[in-house]
TrEMBL record:
InterPro entries: Claudin, Claudin16, Claudin_CS, PMP22/EMP/MP20/Claudin. It holds the Pfam family PMP22_Claudin. The chain crosses the membrane at residues 118-140, 162-187. GO terms for molecular function: structural molecule activity. It is found in: Cell junction, Tight junction; Cell membrane. Its main location: other. It comes from Loxia leucoptera (White-winged crossbill). This is Claudin. The keyword Transmembrane applies. Residues 1-28 form the signal peptide. The gene is Cldn16_0.
Length: 188
């Protein structure tokens, strides 16, 4: 049963880490349409902003000036938290692979392998918390930005939604958290 639980946790952690990595690299954290006719579809991400013309499907992207340039706090904090979550999830996956019972590494010392699985679970938990904070931080800031425009009657037909990258970051964080629970609580 321990091996099945480890393999299940590994599969979930791998899929969730890929979700986190995709969320960090993609550019659709916030979606807005500039007009009611939906002539264009604009996605704003952590690294660039892209506009897709709905009539002909042409997509153009503008890179942000520089990583070191002044950016809004939500972008800087989300970048930092998501990159840290990606690194922790990657380290946890490497540790978990070495700690799996079906891998012959350290086969003569099962106690060390169990501690490696437990350590991978702790790293996944830390990465999931950071990823969830980053995703929710960005989503809340998008909501506040929208509410400020509406409350000041500056609503210019702009409609804000959370992009699929934001949802992917939340899903990846929750998957890493479930995998960490499997490794830390259920393994013993």
């Amino acid at each position: 049963m321990s091996t099945a639980l480890q393999v299940t946790a590994f599969g979930l952690a791998l899929l969730s880490a890929l979700f986190l990595l995709l969320a960090t690299c993609t550019d659709c954290w916030m979606v807005n349409a500039d007009d009611s006719l939906e002539v264009s579809h604009k996605c704003r991400g952590l690294w660039r902003e892209c506009v897709t013309n709905m009539q002909d499907g042409v997509r153009t992207c503008d890179q942000y000036d520089s990583i070191l340039a002044d950016h809004p706090v939500k972008i800087v904090v989300t970048r930092t938290l998501m990159i840290t979550a990606d690194v922790l999830a990657g380290l946890a996956l490497a540790t978990l692979v070495l700690g799996l019972d079906c891998i012959t590494f350290l086969k003569e010392d099962p106690c060390v392998k169990l501690k490696m699985c437990y350590g991978a679970g702790v790293m996944l938990c830390a990465g999931s918390i950071l990823g969830l904070i980053g995703s929710v931080w960005y989503a809340v800031d998008v909501y506040v930005e929208r509410a400020m425009l509406v409350s000041h009657n500056i609503f210019l037909g702009v409609h804000y939604d959370f992009g699929w990258s934001c949802w992917l970051g939340m899903a990846g964080s929750m998957g890493c958290f479930v995998a960490s629970v499997l490794l830390t609580c259920c393994l013993y």
